[in-house]
Design goal:
8 helices; transcription regulation; CheY-like_superfamily; GAF_ANTAR
């Protein structure tokens, strides 16, 4: 079964554009799950991520797929765990008869009417993030081009997560730089006020501010703000 190539290309273009704008990771992963389901004509798909030392279900398309994902999370066994642990795609045409692979997962598949499954690793270099799982109700011989397309979706999902972390880091850095700048401004103002009030140089005024902060176990910025905003004199 060939995948929908034109829809696949359009999805990649949209996903790439999303990376350049603010986005919520959970919404982005939901979009990946929905689109891979459509492009590969699946029953559904799911994403499991490695969080706090274990694999945890994050999102899935449909209640049956969510149940399959939670089964993997509970027993730490299935295509997701295999893809994550081995860093390679695993594809099974009909998992219902594969108790030799994952007995609890196979039993859940029989209960829910799921046949074909595949797990695709989500990782960046040596950093393992999680796995993208594919599900079909009917037995399916997974074609190489289908699994290759699924890997691209998994890589895109990984990109969303990594890029989001970098954006948060940049936002934190920007906030820290702004805080440092604001502190510098208020300290300079406090130095000027203290220097004028005490008839000393700005350098001597800063030492007075710092000594006061140490004696009262307060941050220099807090003392400076008190001098500027509430009229503290030292």
């Amino acid at each position: 079964m060939a995948y929908r190539h034109e829809e696949f290309v359009a999805a990649l273009s949209k996903f790439a554009q999303r990376l350049l704008t603010p986005y919520e990771v959970d919404a982005a992963l939901d979009a990946v799950v929905r689109k891979v389901t459509s492009v590969l004509e699946l029953t559904g798909a799911g994403v499991t991520l490695h969080v706090d030392g274990r694999l945890r279900f994050v999102t899935a398309a449909g209640e049956q797929i969510e149940a399959m994902e939670r089964c993997q999370e509970r027993f730490d066994a299935g295509p997701c765990a295999h893809a994550f642990n081995h860093g390679e795609t695993v594809a099974v045409a009909d998992v219902r008869g594969r108790d030799d692979l994952w007995p609890e997962f196979a039993a859940e598949a029989r209960r829910l009417g799921i046949a074909a499954v595949a797990g695709v690793p989500m990782q960046l270099g040596e950093v393992k993030v999680g796995a993208l799982d594919l599900y079909c109700r009917e037995p399916r011989e997974w074609a190489d081009d289908e699994l290759a397309a699924a890997q691209v979706f998994a890589d895109m999902a990984t990109g969303y997560i990594v890029n989001s972390d970098k954006l948060r880091q940049q936002e934190q850095l920007s906030a820290q730089l702004q805080t440092a700048l604001d502190t510098r401004v208020v300290v300079e103002q406090a130095k000027g006020i203290t220097a004028q009030a005490r008839g000393v140089t700005p350098a001597a005024a800063f030492e007075l501010i710092r000594s006061y902060a140490r004696r009262h176990q307060a941050p220099v910025r807090a003392v400076a703000q008190a001098i500027v905003e509430v009229g503290l004199r030292i």
